[in-house]
Amino acid sequence: MTVAVTACGLKGDGGTTRKQVTMDEQQAIDRAEEIINQAVDGMSPKPTLERVGPAAVGPCLATDHGSDNRVQVVLSYKLTGVPGSQAKNLVRQARDAWVKLGHKFNPSDGDWSDPFPSVDMRTESDDFWIDATTGVVDRAKGEGLASLGVTSPCFLPPKQSSKSSTADPVALDALQTDAPAHRRVLDHSSRI
C-alpha cells in the first residue's frame, strides 16, 4: 500500500517549494538508508555504522500546517571504528559524496575552520533532509565523533491514508510511541 507523502518544505526565501512524492513507510526507510550509504561507501578510513535512537518512524515535526496525523522517518548513525581525529574528515567526505549526487546545502556549507563542523543538506528530487555532524569527544586533542542523519518528508501512516484527514489521534499515539519513552518525555517536560 502506498500513501502520498507531502514534503515538509514551503516556498520561502530559499525558493524551496512543496513537493508531492508517493512513498510508504518502508520506502522512506529504504531511501534514508540509501542516502546514508551513499555518503559512507567511498569513505576512507571506512567507518562502521552504529544506529542511534528510537524506532525510525515517529510523529511529523514539520511546521507547514499539514495534517497532525502525519509521521516521518528519522535515521541517525554514529560512524565508529575510526580514530576520533578523523571525524572532521568523515563529515567532509559525506558532504562531498552528497554534493556529487546533486544534493543542495541548507543554507550554506559548514564552517570548516571550526574543529567540529556540521553540514545540513536536502535532496532536491524527493526532499529528504540530511546532515553530517561532528560531536566533541576530546576538545584538547581535537577528537570527535561523526554522525549522519536523514529525515524524510512527512506522510500519513498506512491506517490513516485511506481515511479522511479527521482521523482519530488516539490511534496514531498507539502507533508512534512506546509507553516508557512517552512517560519519560512527559516527566521531563513537566519539570521544565
Summed up, what is this model?
The protein has 192 residues and is of the alpha+beta class. It has helices at residues 25-40, 87-100, 158-161, 169-176, 179-191, and strands spanning 3-6, 20-23, 48-52, 57-59, 71-80, 104-105, 118-122, 129-138, 143-151, 154-155.
SS summary, helix count: 5
- The CATH topology label is TBP-like
Structural classification? alpha+beta
Series of secondary-structure elements, N-terminal to C-terminal: EEHEEEHEEEEEHHH
Over all CA atoms, what is the radius of gyration?
A: 18 Å
CATH C-level: Alpha Beta
Tell me the total number of β-strands.
Answer: 10
How much of the sequence lies in strands comes to: 25-35%
Integer count of domains = 1
Global mean pLDDT: 74
- The geometry reads as elongated
Low-confidence stretches: 1-18, 161-192
Q: Estimate the helix proportion, in percent.
A: 25-40%
CATH architecture: 2-Layer Sandwich
What kind of sheet is the major sheet? 7 strands, antiparallel
